[in-house]
C-alpha cells in the first residue's frame, strides 16, 4: 500500500508540476505579447511626438522671423507713444502749475 501511495502522490505531483508549467508558459507568452504591443504603441507615440516636434520647431522659426521683421515698426510706435505720453504729462503739469 505504501508503494501505491508513493506512486499516486508522485503522479499527482508530476501532474501538478505539468499544470503549473503550462500555466507558467501561458503567462510568459502573454507577457511577451503584451511587451510587443506596448513597444509598438510606444514607437507609434514617439513617431507622432517627433512629427509634432518638427511642426513646433517650424512654427517657432516662423514666429522668430516675423518678430524680427515686426520689431522695428513696433519700437518706433512705442517710442512715439512714449513721447506723446511724456508730452501729455508735461502739459498737465504745466497747467497744474498755472492754476495753483
Quick recap:
The chain is mostly helical.
Secondary-structure blueprint:
Layout: H1 2-99
Q: How far from one another are the termini? A: 127 Å
Major sheet characteristics: none
Helix vs. strand class: mainly alpha
The rough form would be described as rod-shaped
Portion in helices? over 70%
Strand content: under 5%
**How many helical elements?**
1
The radius of gyration over CA amounts to 40 Å
Mean pLDDT score, rounded? 90
- H/E series: H
Low-pLDDT regions: none
Q: Key terms for this structure?
A:
mainly alpha
Describe this structure in words.
With 100 residues, the chain is an all-alpha fold. It is 98% helix and 0% strand. It has one helix and no strands. It has one helix spanning 2-99. The longest helix is centred in the middle third of the chain and has 98 residues, at 2-99.
Amino acid at each position: 500500500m505504501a508503494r501505491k501511495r508513493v506512486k499516486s502522490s508522485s503522479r499527482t505531483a508530476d501532474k501538478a508540476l505539468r499544470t503549473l508549467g503550462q500555466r507558467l508558459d501561458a503567462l510568459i507568452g502573454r507577457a511577451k505579447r503584451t511587451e510587443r504591443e506596448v513597444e509598438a504603441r510606444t514607437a507609434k507615440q514617439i513617431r507622432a511626438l517627433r512629427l509634432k516636434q518638427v511642426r513646433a520647431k517650424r512654427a517657432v522659426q516662423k514666429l522668430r522671423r516675423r518678430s524680427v521683421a515686426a520689431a522695428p515698426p513696433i519700437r518706433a510706435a512705442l517710442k512715439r507713444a512714449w513721447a506723446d505720453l511724456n508730452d501729455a504729462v508735461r502739459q498737465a503739469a504745466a497747467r497744474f502749475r498755472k492754476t495753483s
